[in-house]
Amino acid sequence: MMDVLMYLFETYIHSDVELSVDQEKLEDELLKAGFHQDAVYKALDWLEDLARLQEDDSYTHVEQSTSTSMRVYTQQEIDGIDTDCRGFLLFLEQIKVLTSETREMVIEQVMALETEELSLDDLKWVVLMVLFNVPGQESAYTQMEELLYTADVGITH
């Protein structure tokens, strides 16, 4: 599913090409591009959920984090988001790419991927897609885009 999402993002959104609103034609194009039908459907559903973030005001109730606050992950989130990825999310918050609200959006979208193993590169793409879809996050999107295309940025061990 991540391959489909990355393809769509790079082909349509990131390159400013007009995204076809006809879902059937888009599905056909993705299938012709070699993607499996199940992955295409899941990716399109995931994108619909992502688009709903713009309308969802439940994130406005997330407490603003302070320098002494800490996000506690559920066991399900720990199982789905490894230590490196959680550390990278913290790093993004510390450098002000993510707010507590956008962090929660990213975590929700990551968990919706239903992937067994989330790579750090996949997480970076999810963050970029979330920031692209949230109004007022243009500066954070630009910063994240730079981080995405820069190798070995983030946490050092």
TrEMBL record:
**Could you tell me which InterPro entries the record lists for this protein?**
Smg (IPR007456)
Superkingdom: Bacteria
- List each coiled-coil range: none
Q: Which Pfam families match?
A: DUF494
Q: Which family does it belong to?
A: Belongs to the Smg family.
Q: Which HAMAP family match?
A: Smg
| Name of the protein described by the UniProt record | Protein Smg homolog
Lineage of producing organism: Bacteria, Pseudomonadati, Pseudomonadota, Gammaproteobacteria, Vibrionales
Name of the gene? smg
